[in-house]
Amino acid sequence: MSNPKKNSIFHIVMFPWFAVGHMTPFLHLSNRLAEKGLSTTFLLPNKAIQQLKHFNLYPDLIAFHSLIIPPVDGLPAGTETASDIPIHLTHFLTIAMDRTRDQVEKVIHEKKPKLVIYDVAHWIPEITKSVGIKAINYTVVSAASLAIVLNPARKVTLEKPITEAELAVPPSGYPSSTVVLRRHEVRSLLFVSYPFGEGITFYERITNAMKESDALAIRTCHETEGKFCDYIGSQYKKPVFLTGPVIPEPGKAPLEERWNKWLNGFEKDSVIFCAFGSQIVLEKEQFQELVLGFELAGLPFLVAIKPPAGISTVEEALPEGFEKRVKGRGIICGEWVQQLKILDHPSVGCFVNHCGFGSMWEALMSNCQVVLVPHLGDQILNTRFMAEELKVAVEVERDENGWFSKENLSQAIKSVMDKESEVGLMVKKNHNKWRETMDLVK
Questions:
Q1: Where in the chain are the domains?
Q2: Which of 278, 129, 148, 280 is nearest to 206 (CA)?
Q3: Residues 116/110, Cβ–Cβ less than 8 Å
């Protein structure tokens, strides 16, 4: 698809964090801006460009610029995106991103854009201010998670990490009366006090990126998170622009034939689809508990998930006799799949996911019942928002160590898929209401 307004005079530079969940919404936003005739230079590692270029709907207006990722001690050779490494090595990729600063600065000086849109590169405003260019900090996680974790009144440093007591109490002026965090979730949220680059914590990086910007943008809408956005704007004293979910249409390319043929063999709304994104890697024992939970639920299922830690393929990690028992009704796939196309298939009736912000929006916009199994900080807060604020989903129960059992997973699925279930009827009614609202504001 091309745009007739090839000679746009309003130019933008986009520089997202090198993770699929960040790069993809930045590119979808670029497509939306291109619809209005605005042109973009998109800064990415070469590997990411190859992965995302098919999402570029306006190649006449959106140009990719390849960044060379410098070597960093501790970062495996060849790493260019967060999907290439385990989560505990992300700190080193952040250092590498910071070391592309000279390349980024050169592009900004050459292109002379009206705006630079960025997220975790907190040093962008230092470049733009010197040349009179506006810098907009674009957040692609939920406003709710920002309001809770990045409250400016809460000081988080390496010397004094955030405590359980601090996380259990809502920040001053926070729009909700309670924030309920379980013990294992508190540990998961301590990441905000960890290093995220040389000499800087995650908390410091993100708050500095917001404070130094000329304006804030958030991938959300007033209808769902207006009170959180108002709170953030009041705390940072900056204008806050909302982009909406910026979810693309499923696209014209058909669903891969093998999945279409398999899904066509089941009744409407009967299949469970599960996906945990590009970074979640379970331990073998939890992986096996997950797949056994789908078997126990008794419904057909398609699970797209990375192999567990230390194992090359999903097939190697499956419980003994599992494939034989679920033959014909269950598939565990270790490859990338067309998530939006699968969710759009009539036979898919339940979406089990990790509640990353992209998957959260895709779940909200789908016709599926939603079951959530969060793993990391913002996913936990997104889950609270979906399950407790909007009441459109059910969260799988865990023990105090964060372990979920096959019985708990199966029970959560049955609670939304049983046609007579009060819980299932309630979340479906709420989901339909919110989806209709979102259809109006897309």
A1: 11-242, 257-440
A2: 148
A3: no
CA distance 241 to 248: 19
Q: What is the pLDDT of residue 399?
A: 85
- How far CA 173 is from CA of 236, 263, 390, in Å, comes to 13, 48, 21
CB atoms within 10 A of CB 5: 17
SS3 of 85-114: the string is CCHHHHHHHHHHHHCCHHHHHHHHHHHCCC
Distance CA 75, CA 89 (A): 7
Q: Give the DSSP letter of residue 178.
A: -
| CA distances (Å), origin 281, targets 218, 254, 413 | 28, 29, 21
Domains 11-242 and 257-440 share a fold: yes
The sign of the torsion formed by the CA atoms of 13, 357, 312, 271 equals negative
Task: Report the pLDDT value the prediction gives residue 162, as an integer from 0 to 100.
Answer: 45
pLDDT, residue 270, reads 97
The CA distance from 122 to 272, in Å, is 40
Q: Is 58 exposed, middle or buried (0-12, 13-18, 19+ CB in 10 A)?
A: buried
Would you say 62 and 42 are in contact if contact means Cβ atoms under 8 Å apart?
yes
Architecture of domain 11-242 in CATH?
3-Layer(aba) Sandwich (3.40)
Q: Are 65 and 30 in contact (CB under 8 A)?
A: no
Distance CA 153, CA 174 (A): 11
Element (H, E) at 143: helix 143-149
Where does the pLDDT of residue 50 fall: very low under 50, low under 70, confident under 90, or very high at 90 and above?
Answer: very high
Q: Cα separations (Å) of 337 from 30, 259, 260, 308, 345? A: 23, 9, 12, 18, 13
DSSP H/E element including 182: none
The CATH architecture assigned to 257-440 reads 3-Layer(aba) Sandwich (3.40)
- Better-scored residue on pLDDT, 37 or 166: 37
60 and 38 Cβ atoms separated by less than 8 Å:
no
Classify 293 as helix, strand or coil: helix
